[in-house]
Specification:
Blueprint (H helix, E strand, L loop, with lengths): L6 E5 L6 H15 L6 E5 L2 H11 L4 E5 L16 H6 L4 E4 L2 H7 L3 H14 L2 E6 L3 H5 L3 H13 L11 E4 L13 H19 L8 E3 L8 H5 L6 E4 L6 H19 L2
Parallel strand pairs: 1-2, 1-8, 2-3, 3-4, 4-5, 5-6, 6-7
Helix pairs in contact: 1-2, 1-10, 5-7, 7-8
């Protein structure tokens, strides 16, 4: 983890009504309110963001959105702008998630525009990159992922890129019966950091790189012991407040041990 501050982000995807989100926040905060070793983020559906703002403000938990538009405003039915997210106290936004790419056809070019807009607005993008099974079996996994990073970030200066967070998602290991090991995660996260170094120079050492793929309370410690894995983007295991709190606590214990706290 070097000097990077670890990040654990929960992605609720299309789950939780407003009432469910408020109940979750109360229960989750009670469990993690004293965790200071890492950054905790909840990325919720748009409808839950304002209620969560009221629950999470002044707490240790940051609020994030799951997507946003590259436009500031206008005739873009169904879209949400960076300013709207800032208005409900979001500090992070997930961009380029594999489901947005695979199911909704988002391109590298669109994602690059979104990253630029988020950074310009003062939001911290969690840029998701990853390869599917066909690409991995063709032996082109690293090439694809490094290309995604470069296409999304190459037009930005090293200084502009400072707030960026990268999340590596092995799409091939989600719902396929195949498993990504901590070594798989480290190999790709290291490749991503090499790409970032080409774009940012030494500042790349400060960028948190997260792993996202069936992360649970039981395997977070093993993942965080890898030198280039700085946290996790957690899907299904973030939906239960107590289970996710346990994952966060296990991650904090690893950080405390590493830092000798």
């Amino acid at each position: 983890m070097a000097n990077r501050r670890p990040v654990i982000a929960g992605n609720w995807k299309m789950f939780k009504t407003v009432n469910e989100a408020e109940d979750y926040a109360v229960r989750f905060l009670e469990e993690v309110k004293e965790v200071t070793e890492l950054d905790i983020i909840l990325c919720a559906p748009f409808t839950a963001l304002h209620p969560l703002k009221n629950e999470l403000e002044e707490s240790v938990v940051h609020l994030g959105a799951q997507n946003m538009s590259w436009a500031d405003q206008g005739a873009y039915t169904g879209e949400i702008s960076a300013q709207m997210l800032l208005d409900v106290a979001c500090t992070y936004v997930i961009l380029g998630h594999s489901e947005r790419r695979e199911l909704f056809g988002e391109t590298d070019q669109e994602i690059a525009k979104k990253v630029q807009k988020a950074l310009a607005a003062g939001l911290k993008p969690i840029l998701c990159v990853g390869e599917n099974l066909n690409v991995r079996e063709e032996g082109k996994a690293a090439e694809r992922v490094k290309g995604q990073v470069s296409l999304a970030l190459s037009s930005l200066s090293a200084e502009e890129l400072n707030p960026i967070v990268i999340a590596y998602e092995p799409i091939w290991a989600i719902g396929t019966g195949k498993t990504a090991s901590s070594k798989d995660a480290q190999e790709m996260c290291a490749a991503i950091r090499t790409t970032l170094t080409g774009l940012m120079g030494p500042a790349a050492e400060n960028v948190p790189i997260l792993y996202g793929g069936s992360v649970k309370a039981e395997n977070i410690a093993e993942l965080l012991n890898e030198p280039d894995v700085d946290g996790a983007l957690v899907g299904g295991a973030s939906l239960d407040p107590l289970s996710f709190a346990k994952l966060v606590q296990n991650a904090a214990a690893v950080v405390a041990r590493v830092e000798g706290i």
